[in-house]
């Protein structure tokens, strides 16, 4: 059971890193994260995603990242923030709710990235890791389950669909397809 939970945490970290800005550290970081995933079955889809990222021109990938997630014109097609996606505003009530949960668990985050998809996936990874410990297992499982249902499941499936429909990048299209099926609903 511990190995399964550790691998779930690694998968969630890999996915979290897929939403980082594609600078010079992006691909080496994804390669490292992929190496940490334990099973060949889990690695297969993510390996093909990494290959697509590796094939893309870095300047075009950076432009697509910016257009999709930061400053698309006339509007950003895929805002990677739960509050923007669900409430239409930065740092909305969902930001405050996730920040409260992070603080309960002693996790800190950049105040501007509280409900960014990367941060939320990293929190799930943190909870999956915490579920490997006897003293935090039950609480981590309960928090993971509620966070998944109250936050992640409320916006990431729609976000993935929008990403798939709006991207010009084969890598981001593959990420959009993998994302909803790769986040475990429970640990």
- Average the pLDDT over all residues and give the rounded result: 92
Count of DSSP strands: 0
Number of helices: 9
Overall morphology: globular
- What percent of residues are in strands? under 5%
Q: End-to-end span in angstroms?
A: 10 Å
What about the largest sheet?
none
What is the radius of gyration?
A: 16 Å
Share of helix, binned = over 70%
Low-confidence stretches: none
Write down the secondary-structure element order: HHHHHHHHH
By secondary-structure content and strand pairing, the structural class works out as mainly alpha
What does this structure look like?
With 187 residues, this protein is an all-alpha fold. The protein is built from nine helices and no strands. The longest helix has 30 residues. The N and C termini lie close together (10 Å).
Essential attributes:
187 residues; mainly alpha; 9 helices; globular
Question: Layout of helices and strands, plus pairs?
Answer:
Layout: H1 2-18, H2 26-36, H3 40-55, H4 58-70, H5 82-87, H6 93-104, H7 117-130, H8 137-166, H9 170-182
Helix pairs in contact: 1-2, 1-7, 2-3, 3-9, 7-8, 8-9
Describe the structure concisely for a colleague:
The chain is an all-alpha fold and 187 residues long. Helices cover 71% and strands 0% of the residues. The N and C termini lie close together (10 Å).
């Amino acid at each position: 059971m511990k190995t399964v939970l550790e691998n779930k945490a690694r998968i969630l970290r890999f996915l979290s890193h897929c939403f980082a800005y594609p600078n010079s550290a992006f691909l080496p970081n994804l390669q490292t994260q992929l190496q940490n995933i334990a099973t060949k079955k889990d690695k297969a889809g993510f390996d093909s995603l990494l290959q697509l990222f590796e094939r893309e021109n870095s300047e075009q990938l950076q432009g697509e990242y910016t257009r999709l997630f930061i400053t698309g014109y006339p509007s950003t097609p895929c805002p990677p923030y739960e509050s923007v996606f669900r409430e239409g505003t930065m740092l909305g009530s969902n930001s405050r709710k996730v920040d409260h949960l992070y603080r309960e668990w002693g996790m800190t985050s950049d105040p501007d990235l509280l409900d960014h998809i990367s941060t939320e996936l990293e929190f799930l990874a943190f909870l999956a890791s915490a579920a490997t410990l006897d003293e935090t297992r039950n609480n981590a499982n309960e928090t993971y389950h509620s966070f998944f249902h109250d936050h992640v499941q409320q916006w990431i499936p729609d976000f993935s669909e929008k990403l798939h429909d709006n991207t010009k990048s084969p890598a981001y299209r593959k990420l959009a397809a993998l994302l909803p099926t790769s986040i475990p609903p429970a640990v």
